[in-house]
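Field guide to reading this record: the first block holds the primary sequence, the second block holds the structure written as discrete tokens, and the final block holds curator observations. Each block starts with its own label. This record concerns Endonuclease NucS, catalogued under organism Bifidobacterium erythrocebi.

BLOCK 1 — SEQUENCE
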Amino acid sequence: MRILVADCSAEYSGRLNASLPLAKRVLLVKADNSLLIFSELGSYKPLNWMAAPCTLKDITPADADDDADTPAPEKVLRVASAKSSDVLEVTLQHVYSDETYDLGEDPGLIKDGVEDHLQQYLAEQIERIGKGAKLVRREYPTAIGPVDIMAIDANGEHVVIEIKRHGGIDGVEQLTRYCELLNRDPLLAPVHGIFAAQTITPQARVLAEDRGFRCLILDYEEMKGTEDDSLRLF
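BLOCK 2 — STRUCTURE
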């Protein structure tokens, strides 16, 4: 991993054109030559980047003429996509730091509270969706893929539950497809929908409620603790 702190500007050309004016930024260059540009503020997402597969050229320009209005940059990093004509060229006017680190092999992210665990706990604690609810099955098969949980509510009507760690609009659209399909089956209809997640974006909540779905926030630690309590003898 190469980490640079520099006054830099950038030009991206190809399928889209974008530019960054001169400012102090952090650049990450990974072992696969992918390059990401970050600013001090903002979210985790880089301002601009070039993903692998790509090639990188590290260019040290010749000194500028004495009469030039602006000094020559210290470096130019030119990253070209291997799959398209896209090019990201970063001009480093002044480099404050340029360090390389060997991070070694990464074991990957080990997640706690992933969707499978949430699905397991909610299936075991199905009355969280309403008193008198009963589980039909997890991974209920349909022609467009398995539903996370199929249940029956206290009124004897079927309920499709779509589970996400972080609920967004895509999850609501997925739930919509399941409900539309299953409501065509006279043996199942009416089929209701519940969108369940640890967090739900405001936009997803508005869309879900507009389509007649309930939103259910899942507290993973509480659900996990409920399971732990059920295993105690005293």
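BLOCK 3 — OBSERVATIONS
Residues 169-182 form the longest helix (14 residues).
The chain has a mean pLDDT of 89.
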